[in-house]
Amino acid sequence: MDKIALIVGASGIVGSNLANELLTTGWTVYGLARRPRTDVPSLHPVAADLLDPAALETALADVNPTHVFITTWMRQENEVENIRVNSALVRNVLTALSPKHTVQHVALVTGLKHYLGPFEAYAKGGTLPPTPFREELPRLDIDNFYYAQEDEVYAAAERDGFTWSIHRPHTIIGKAVGNMMNMGTTLAVYASICKETGRPFQWPGSEAQWNGLSDVTDARIIAKQLAWAATTEAAHNQAFNIVNGDYFRWSWLWGRLADWFGVEARSFDGTVHPLEEEIAGDAELWRDMAARHQLVESDLNKLASAWHTDLDLGRPLEVMTDMSKSRKLGFLEYQPTEDSFFDLFAQLRTDRLIP
């Protein structure tokens, strides 16, 4: 039977990698975004505002997906607004598709804030679940737009009879431009600035993150899990963590990232050095670098999301994730974290996004 995917947020880190994964394995793929990509062969672009139900209905009139993958969100000023807006975008898409009766499975990508709480909460510390995080941990007693998005999926599944899966990555490493949460590219830009100026590649985060165990999620491995869960009956109606499968300490990895760029690594020195402050005055420098090195993106803010990298690396605790649940069901993919970063850096250089 034909597998027809609708990827909501197809131009983002997860969505673009998922499109590549599905297209190479025989799926028909529609990519929905406000400004969808038109440069991917065989990907059918669908342009619509996710918060405009009428526009969505029109845009999806001739799209009859069997599988829907929701891989996007919209950052708002506070969690109340995050809940209102991000639950609406899930609800609007599934409501527009409901009369078609073609949807068999819906996958939703959220993240480890399911366990940590929203940005404004976990950044301030407090009582958090023990690591490694496991899917059976109960929801925190706090407002969280991830919970609201899940509830929209559950309600639509009850109404329309499709199966679902929830996917909870840690920090995602992969290529995207204009993405709100992009640690890999942010660190590549910072290292490139350090190389250009002779600055040290200073660890920006907390002592707990420097010394503690951590993990990340390669965009390619979450794409594989999304495809696996959509087509594996035992994985239906389940929530899954998704990380590379290895643990590391930033105190081990930081020097390796610095070596790739040929810059001096500086370790944790007792003080947090937020990246948002470190590169705050570098917009003009980056424009000059883009001109001299013939880079394709001269806007520093479209490449670097320092605010999000600071939140991840500034956490007051180690953060790591248990993958036992999907492993037991047969998802055995593994990705070395060093290679996640190095592959990304090489791609960014090839695509002339960094010098």
Automatic annotation (TrEMBL):
It comes from the Bacteria. Transmembrane segments: none annotated. InterPro entries: NAD(P)-bd_dom_sf, PRISE-like_Rossmann-fold. Residues 60-355 form the PRISE-like Rossmann-fold domain. It holds the Pfam family PRISE. This is NAD-dependent dehydratase.
